[in-house]
Specification:
Low-confidence stretches: 5-10
Strand content: 5-15%
Number of helices: 10
Shape: elongated
Helix content: 40-55%
Strand order of the largest sheet: 3-2-1-4-6-5-7
Order of helices and strands: EHEHEHEHEHEHHEHHH
Distance between the termini: 28 Å
Radius of gyration: 23 Å
Structural class: alpha/beta
Largest sheet: 7 strands, mixed
């Protein structure tokens, strides 16, 4: 899937904005105008990579028609739908800017604030990622989505060992040099934003959370509550297992060993030094999980720094 030809920017841009576009024909140009206006007035050199993810409407045609008006926009057209995670991964890998920005084309995020995210990274070299932390929830399936996201976020906070105001915000800016080793881990779907957050946190990269407003999306949502919620929680566990498996496996292992010992002591007192099979099974299960946890941790540490 080679990139389409587009305007040539004379100098290497400081910022690359990756904009996934899938069936956004009615508002994609409004979003491009808003981003371009904000970046033009910011003074930062930039490129806007608008990636059409094999839309079935006229999104690609609208982008091509508008291209002459936006000299910093580069259009990338996929020949098959790869998902927002695939778009962000390839867009980030091909980015020419030192700072990469992710956002959406559905008018939900305050993209006029993108320069503010970039400025935070520019002024503070200790911060590696800035996340737009949403103060409200305006997505679809709100009654189910809010409690589900709360539970998933609390699980992630517990496993990551720190507070996470917004685990899966689609508006964020990060240093490409820091993110590069983790881009290959991005899944094809929406949980890519969860992945990049946990990858940074698990490797002690500082993440700054900037409160932002969040508007109701334009067009039809591509979010599937049950399917995507399942993938979110699975990706949280997968990422913590990838970087720190002891966080996931050791607590249940210790609980099972402890329960097995207590049950064994109870059996000894009540059955005259006779251990029931369930006490033995519980204890051995805990020992087995603990052994796997230690082996997994050894494998993680043997990979070296990534």
């Amino acid at each position: 899937m080679p990139p389409e030809s587009g305007p040539v920017v004379s100098e290497n841009p400081y910022v690359t904005i990756v904009l996934p576009c899938y069936n956004e024909q009615d508002h994609v140009i409004d979003e491009v105008e808003r981003i371009s206006a904000a970046m033009d007035s910011s003074g930062y050199t930039y490129e806007l990579v608008a990636v059409d993810d094999c839309s079935t409407d006229d999104t690609l045609e609208r982008l091509r028609e508008a291209a002459p008006r936006f000299p910093n926009m580069r259009i990338r057209a996929f020949h098959r739908n790869g998902g927002s995670g695939t778009v962000r991964r390839i867009g980030s890998q091909e980015a020419r800017g030192e700072i990469v920005v992710w956002t959406d084309a559905d008018l939900t995020y305050p993209n006029e604030r993108i320069p503010e995210l970039v400025q935070i990274l520019e002024k503070d070299p200790t911060i590696d990622q800035v996340v737009g932390a949403r103060t409200t929830e305006e997505g679809s399936h709100k009654l189910l989505r809010v409690p589900a996201k709360f539970v998933i976020r609390k699980v992630a906070e517990r496993l990551a060992g720190q507070k996470i105001p917004d685990l899966n915000s689609g508006l964020r800016a990060f240093r490409k040099s820091v993110a590069k080793p983790y881009l290959r881990l991005l899944p094809p779907g929406f949980s890519c934003v969860t992945t990049i957050t946990l990858a940074f946190l698990s490797n002690q990269h500082d993440v700054y959370y900037l409160p932002i407003d969040y508007a109701k999306r334009a067009g039809k949502s591509k979010f599937s509550f049950f399917g995507d919620a399942y993938r979110y929680i699975l990706q949280v566990l997968r990422m913590i297992m990838y970087f720190n498996p002891l966080k996931v496996l050791m607590p249940p292992a210790l609980w099972l060993v402890g329960i097995g010992l207590v049950k064994g002591a109870y059996d000894v007192v009540n059955y005259g030094f006779y251990l029931t099979s369930n006490a033995i099974v519980i204890f051995l299960s805990g020992m087995l999980i603990g052994s796997v946890a230690l082996l997994a941790d050894l494998i993680v540490r043997s990979r070296g720094n990534e």
